[in-house]
Design a protein that fits this description.
Strand content: 15-25%
Strand order of the largest sheet: 1-3-2
Structural class: alpha+beta
Distance between the termini: 30 Å
């Protein structure tokens, strides 16, 4: 079992979704690629932040993710 990516996008949206997921008691992993993109000379990418949850928690967080997607 491993991590499943549930979001790729801007840091602001990723942090907002992370807060909603953690509010229902599920831990998340936030991978911020903004610094890596800058160091690599790519500038700031819109898909620079990724949010992950444990695969086993996906069914629990899926309704939260769907509601979030509808609101953006």
């Amino acid at each position: 079992m491993g991590l499943m990516k549930v979001f790729s996008g801007s840091e602001i949206l990723a942090l907002a979704l992370q807060q909603k997921i953690e509010a229902i008691g599920v831990d998340t992993v936030l991978k911020n690629n903004i610094q890596s993109a800058r160091l690599g000379g790519f500038g700031n990418s819109d898909l620079a932040v990724e949010l992950f949850v444990q695969e086993t928690e996906f069914s629990k967080v899926n309704p939260v993710i769907e509601e979030f997607r509808m609101s953006i």
